[in-house]
């Protein structure tokens, strides 16, 4: 109620509604040192005012937001993508294999797409990342995964079993 929701539920249904409520309080998709906490409708205005993002139209019908200022997290690259009335975060993280329980002595890039909002909405989407050689017009490796919510920490999604699909 203090955040703007006027829905009324019996106590046993309150928790489920809070997970999907349009007034769900979200952290800044760039995380890092940003203290933003607000509803989904406040995310894009926050990105523009506090992080000076540059919106770039992307074909066929989306917008990519990049170049965040005041974002000081090392080894993490974030891109925010607006598509079909939804916001997604494409995150690439550099990690050492030992950080996710692998014995090899190597560095890895983990790429993942997250839905900015409720987990119930995230479960409607999957992603595919393809490497493409523009000169030879050849498609290389494809990486696929299920979209998860930014409400779920990225670290909880990195495991020995799951990393093969989203690891470059």
C-alpha geometry: globular
The strand count comes to 10
The radius of gyration computed from the alpha-carbon positions, rounded to a whole number of angstroms, is 18 Å
Largest sheet entry = 6 strands, mixed
> Segments where pLDDT lies below 50 for 5+ residues?
159-168
Kindly report the oligomeric state of this protein: single chain
Distance between the termini: 43 Å
Succession of helices and strands: HEEHEEEEEHEEEH
Estimated helix fraction: 10-25%
Describe the structure.
It is a single chain. The chain has 168 residues and is an alpha+beta fold. The chain has helices at residues 11-20, 43-51, 119-122, 163-166; strands spanning 26-27, 37-38, 54-58, 62-66, 76-83, 86-96, 107-115, 126-133, 138-146, 148-149. The chain has a 6-stranded mixed sheet. Strands 1-2 form a two-stranded antiparallel ribbon. A hairpin with a 3-residue loop joins strand 3 (54-58) and strand 4.
Summary keywords:
alpha+beta, six-stranded mixed β-sheet, two-stranded antiparallel ribbon, 4 helices, disordered C terminus
Question: Outline of this structure?
Answer:
By secondary structure, the protein is α+β, with helices and mostly antiparallel strands. Helix content is 16%, strand content 36%.
Task: List strands and helices in order, with pairings.
Elements: H1 11-20, E1 26-27, E2 37-38, H2 43-51, E3 54-58, E4 62-66, E5 76-83, E6 86-96, E7 107-115, H3 119-122, E8 126-133, E9 138-146, E10 148-149, H4 163-166
Parallel strand pairs: 7-10
Antiparallel strand pairs: 1-2, 3-4, 4-5, 5-6, 6-7, 8-9
